[in-house]
Amino acid sequence: MKRTLIYLSAIGVWGLLTITSALANQELATAKNCMACHAVDHKVVGPGYQDVAKKYVGDAGAQARLVAKILKGGAGVWGPIPMPANTQVNESEANQLAAWVLSQK
What we know:
By secondary structure, this protein is mostly helical. Helices cover 57% and strands 0% of the residues. Helix 3 crosses helix 4 (91-102).
């Protein structure tokens, strides 16, 4: 009984950490103005994050490419409107954001 409670408590804490982490990354995306051009579930100026995640399912290099795009900007993958470089985002934040975007399946 004691082991079950400890196990369930650990699962509950992990679930809470996972939810908190997901919210923290959306909060980071909002704080860094990503949400001005993107939404989780639909296109705004740029693609919705769920569409981005679906596009890169199974692509081992996706996170590194998204980090580069977040930091340096890019154009042509999702249409003619370019994504500007995000000079207010550091590399660690870009990694957090890319991982979060890729989790939005």
